[in-house]
């Protein structure tokens, strides 16, 4: 098998050329492309057979990139990001005006910092966030191995980075933080209990700061 670093270099080259790459993450295998390239985004929808009204989540390296994508970042968002990033938490945030064309017709954007070296290296190599949707046909089970991606998508993608089996084996948990209370939209690798406990801690910290004028 080709060394992982060589596969990553090839993956970055393909992304820069507008291609679609499948890669391992800390949850399941992901399907990535340059989010700012309209043709690349269109291909992701075609490869996955995903309905156009369903937005595509983005993978980022850090909060600096999040600030480029979001119109506002609340204290709740920062608290949950510090608690669960990098990791299996996707946060729904109000979309920045500069992202008017992505995703089309949506007022929010979904972002996550993965706890896996491969997608982080792809983001660094491309120099911008990448689409990070699951590498499967919409409605089918997510793939946790490169072989699983090959079975579902075959030559519909330009390249599959084989990084072995994903450690998570489950999708990320999606939480909407556009309001004052986190709303779980999809239960995934992070449990509802963990989210609720984190929010309770957040409320206690905020109440303490308010009481003492901090």
What does this structure look like?
The protein is of the alpha/beta class and 214 residues long. Helix content is 37%, strand content 15%. It has a single domain, classed as DHBP synthase. It is built from seven helices and ten strands. The strands form two sheets. It has a six-stranded mixed β-sheet with strand order 6-3-5-4-9-10. It is globular, with a radius of gyration of 17 Å. The model is unreliable at 208-214 (pLDDT under 50).
Mean pLDDT, rounded to whole units?
93
Cα gyration radius (Å): 17 Å
Q: Helix and strand string, N-terminal first?
A: HEEHEHHEEHEEHEEEH
Count of alpha/pi helices: 7
Task: Tell me the CATH topology.
Answer: DHBP synthase
Question: Looking at the structure, what is the overall shape?
Answer: globular
Secondary-structure topology with pairs:
Layout: H1 4-16, E1 21-23, E2 30-32, H2 38-48, E3 58-59, H3 63-69, H4 75-84, E4 89-94, E5 108-112, H5 117-126, E6 130-131, E7 133-134, H6 146-153, E8 159-160, E9 173-176, E10 183-186, H7 192-211
Helix pairs in contact: 1-5, 4-7
Structure summarized in a few sentences:
This protein is α/β, with parallel strands linked by helices and 214 residues long. The chain has helices at residues 4-16, 38-48, 63-69, 75-84, 117-126, 146-153, 192-211, and strands spanning 21-23, 30-32, 58-59, 89-94, 108-112, 130-131, 133-134, 159-160, 173-176, 183-186.
Keywords:
DHBP synthase, alpha/beta, 4-stranded mixed beta sheet, 10 strands
